[in-house]
Design brief:
alpha/beta; about 325 residues; four-stranded mixed beta sheet; three-stranded antiparallel beta sheet; single chain
Length: about 325
């Protein structure tokens, strides 16, 4: 038996002459396939470029010679990069930013639409930023659920609430008709306090209504401003806080306050005008833009056309 190792490189194959020929043909075919695959792989690698820096890749290289990006070549001679290209990263980041922006715009539009719809249901116009309007809407819901009677009083007296931090406190502007409630941002920061403050200001507007009935449509300032008016409004606000299960320190503060804060800030200025009668200025003249917004929310105020005269103060 003759060994083929002397004639053909490879393992020893024993057998007949036919087996020898078959063995030689198989080895030759394997060598040709190996050479063919190697040529195709080299051709593919010679035509590839680095996706990160764009430099042409060297045949058989495991990393890019320019930027050092690792390269993995699979059995099908495809390249897999561990890092995406700069262009891909920039495109993905741009898509993410656009998506977030569109989401925020759509979300804000839906929130504004819902708040406007709730204002129409309640019948009270709220002017301010989205956060302020959301807090006022939550205060309306709280009053409606916990103290329905207080909520009805608020609906009957308050028609517009605006956000304004230019002054040091919240107040009701009784110089215009209908009266305008002005809240600081801090007033709406606590839900129970905001709800009780609405009841507080609605009591002041009730005082204005009573004064107008007693003085032929004019407002006696001494009946709606001063320590007595504040004590009455604080008492109602404290009762509302108790009904809403608010912290006791809020109630204690109102019961101890007794209008002293108002008296210290404004009392000295009004000592000489205690018998002043005030004609209210119609909102459609003093605040026309606000008036137009109010008409979209509520149109059944009985004094809308009654005080169509210039504002004046008489003694």
């Amino acid at each position: 038996m003759k060994c083929l190792a002397d004639e053909v490189p490879g393992p020893c194959i024993a057998g007949s002459a036919a087996d020898d020929r078959r063995s030689r043909n198989a080895l030759a075919h394997l060598a040709a396939e190996k050479q063919k695959n190697g040529s195709q792989s080299d051709l593919i690698m010679s035509q590839c470029k680095c996706d990160y820096c764009g430099r042409k890749l060297a045949i058989g290289a495991s990393t890019c010679s320019e930027c050092g990006t690792p390269i993995v070549v699979t059995d099908e001679s495809t390249r897999i990069f561990n890092l995406p290209s700069k262009r891909t990263l920039a495109f993905a980041l741009a898509c993410l930013c656009i998506g977030i922006g569109v989401f925020m715009v759509v979300r804000r539009s839906i929130t504004v639409a819902r708040l406007h719809m709730h204002q129409r249901q309640v019948g009270i116009l709220v002017v301010g930023d989205v956060a302020f309007r959301r807090k006022l809407s939550a205060a309306f819901v709280l009053l409606q659920q916990r103290t329905p009677d207080r909520f009805r009083v608020v609906q009957e007296n308050i028609y517009a609430v605006i956000q304004d931090d230019s002054r040091g406190d919240s107040y009701t502007d009784i110089s215009i008709c209908p009266p305008l409630v002005v809240f600081k941002t801090d007033t709406a920061s606590n839900l129970e306090w905001c709800a009780s403050a609405l009841v507080h200001e609605s009591r002041h507007i009730e005082q204005v209504r009573r004064s107008k009935l007693s003085h032929h449509g004019q407002v006696m300032l001494s009946e709606v401003l001063g320590t007595n008016a504040e004590i009455e409004a604080n008492s109602v606000q404290a009762e509302t806080l108790q009904e809403l299960a608010a912290p006791s320190y809020m109630v204690d503060y109102l019961l101890r306050e007794q209008g002293r804060n108002w008296n210290q800030r404004f009392g000295a200025k009004l000592l000489s005008v205690t018998n002043v009668l005030l004609d209210q200025m119609p909102m459609k003249h003093s605040r026309p833009q606000l008036w137009e917004q109010l008409l979209r929310i509520r149109t059944n105020y009985h004094d809308l056309e009654q005080w169509d005269r210039p504002a004046r103060i008489s003694y």
